[in-house]
Amino acid sequence: MEENKKQQKDENTEEETELSIPKYSKGKLFFCYFVALVWVSIIVFGLTTALSGILTLIGNTVSVPKIIAIVATIYFFFRLTLSLGNHWRTSDSEIGTAVTNFPNPFYDPNFQPGPLLLQRQYNTLYSEYRRQSILLKNSKKYVRELEEILSAFESKLRVLLRHNDNSNRLIRSLNFLYQTKDIEFVPKMLRNILAECVTVLEKDQSDKSISLFQVRDDKLIIIESVRINAESIVKRTFEKGQGFAGYIWEKEKPEIVNEIDPEDNRFNDFKLPATPIGSILGFPLKVDGLFLGVLCLQSEEENGFNTADLRTIEYYSRLCTMVLLYDKMKYEGHKEGA
């Protein structure tokens, strides 16, 4: 919370800095007008000296200071006249005299006086422009963030809805196969579970494959699969601690490996034909210390899984565990009956 407040404060400070018009240094300002004064003085004295010389030649001797005084007086009256006229045109107040006031007939609502007002208006407009630019920039950033959040939410919602539909289908299949005493109850249910399982992953499902291993005679063998070649199904068996499935058996904990290291012994292909994989997810199937098998999902791409997939796959792993446990109990029951 404190970090968010600090970050927000920094952003506000940054925005205020961007909004403010860059200040002109006082030293630079003084030097600018000083140079202007010197330059104007040179021009004025140069022109008045030339004018004084011309007047002297034609018989009218006029000194340079006098010419400057005359020009200054004329300019002074001009500026006063201009300022007073501008004031009357911009103000609708009455014109006052020493005797009385009378209505201002010169008021012009469309008149905009001198450069100073224009500069102030420019500063105001420029500040507003910068403020709007910053707001637009922030709005675009927030829109992008919102789009990402909505996209992630939509993805999770889509997975959740699909997971709900999958669960309904699987329960209906379970009820039907059990009620009809289907002799292929176990393989059919496992096949249905794996088919539904691959559809609830958050990332692309088209490159995924699944292997369901069962422990038989202290070895893991593939009893059901999706997109696994027949030779691998028959020949790919693992002892405890051997291969990735054997590793999950040994650790008895789910795990995701999103970058396959060819030097990692867990991913030795044992010279069997197989599609190269970029990432893999393994989930142990166990009940109260009884280890029944391993559910493995493979992706052809790296980073094919995330932690959310583990939570989703857990449900399908539990279903597989239930079916395998049912098969084991049924087998042991028949064995005892015999």
Structural overview:
The chain is an alpha+beta fold and 338 residues long. Among the domains are: 85 residues; 144 residues, Beta-Lactamase, CATH 3.30.450.40. The strands form two sheets. A five-stranded antiparallel beta sheet has the order 4-3-7-6-5, sandwiched between helices. A hairpin with a 2-residue loop joins strand 6 and strand 7. The two termini are 68 Å apart. Keywords: Membrane, Plasmid, Transmembrane, Transmembrane helix. InterPro entries: GAF, GAF-like_dom_sf.
Structural class, from helix and strand content? alpha+beta
Distance N to C terminus: 68 Å
Task: Give the helices and strands as they follow along the chain.
Answer: HHHEEHHEEHHEEEH
Sheet-strand content, in percent, reads 5-15%
Helix fraction, binned, reads 55-70%
CATH architectural grouping of the domain at 194-337:
2-Layer Sandwich
**Shape label:** rod-shaped
- CATH class term of the domain at 194-337: Alpha Beta
**Count of discrete alpha- or pi-helical segments spanning 4 or more residues:** 8
Average pLDDT rating: 83
User: Are there runs of 5+ residues with pLDDT below 50, and where?
Assistant: none
Indicate the CATH topology of the domain at 194-337.
Answer: Beta-Lactamase
CATH homologous superfamily caption of the domain at 194-337: GAF domain
Largest sheet: 5 strands, antiparallel
Cα-based radius of gyration, to the nearest Å: 44 Å
Number of strands: 7
Overview features:
338 residues; alpha+beta; Beta-Lactamase; 5-stranded antiparallel beta sheet; two-stranded antiparallel sheet; 8 helices; 59% helix; 13% strand; rod-shaped; GAF-like_dom_sf; transmembrane; transmembrane helix
